[in-house]
Amino acid sequence: MRIGSHVEAEDPIAGAKARGADVVQLFLGAPQAWKDPEVLYPGGAEALREAAAEADLPIVVHAPYRINVASTNNRIRIPSRTLLQKQVNAAAEIGAIGLVVHGGHVEAGTPLEKGYDNWRKCLEKLERPTAVFIENTAGGDGAMARGVERIAGLWEAVRAAGEDNVGFCLDTCHAWASGEQLVGLVDRVKAATGRVDVVHVNDSRDAFDSGADRHANLGQGHIPADDLLAVIRDAVAPAVVETPGAEVEQSADIAWLRERLG
To answer: CB of 242 within 8 A of CB of 195?
Structure first.
């Protein structure tokens, strides 16, 4: 089992070494923007791919937060599809094992089924040179992936479009905030999706079922430690912390996990 963290895009190899990480996640561009992906590592995509392979360091890319292919608003959905394809292509160029993207949401008063169908249409046209990992989300009445029941509905659309290179990213803070008990969660998710490919390991600043996406460092939030650790043990997938702070704090979180997982 590999344990790592989200790191700075300029030099993820150095970021991994500083934290003691053996898997990393990064953005290819500003997470809040509509801009095209950009590889900041010196030498570009090929150099990063070669350096990561030499370091035996799997890379996960996180897509910009603005992407929402479920939306019924053309001004959001269409550029989201375009940017998602560019992000998938860029992730493949650096040799990433996959691209994490949020499940998105539909507008107020819109049936969830509209969003599921928009995901189907997106995936039918999306080229997938590397995997797309759809991530569960913490809140939102129209969210596609808030809670296992909605994830199951979303996965019906995934299957209709073809499951090749489509996987799932399970975020512990998001699950807790959405009202999902973590004990037995991996089994419930796998019953819906058939898989868990990456785990985002985050404690929660807020109480259970708060709907708030606010990460805390491990052991410093509201999630019981044993429940959080059970998710990682059950998933048997790369574990990535997205906790507050940088090298010092995330190094401590990685060490916290390794000490308890054995």
So the answer is: no
Single pTM value for the model: 0.98
Q: In the chain, what are the domains? A: 3-243 (3.20.20.150)
Taking Cα atoms as reference points, which of 80, 126, 99, 128 lies closest to residue 26? 99
Contacts of residue 154, defined as CB under 8 A and 6 or more positions apart, other chains included, come to 103, 116, 119, 134, 144, 145
162-197 residue pLDDT tens: 999 999 999 999 999 999 999 999 999 999 999 999
Beta bridge partners of 27: 62
Residue 129 CB-density burial (10 A; 0-12 exposed, 13-18 middle, 19+ buried): exposed
Residues 6+ apart with CB under 8 A from 24: 4, 5, 6, 7, 12, 15, 16, 57, 58, 59, 60, 240
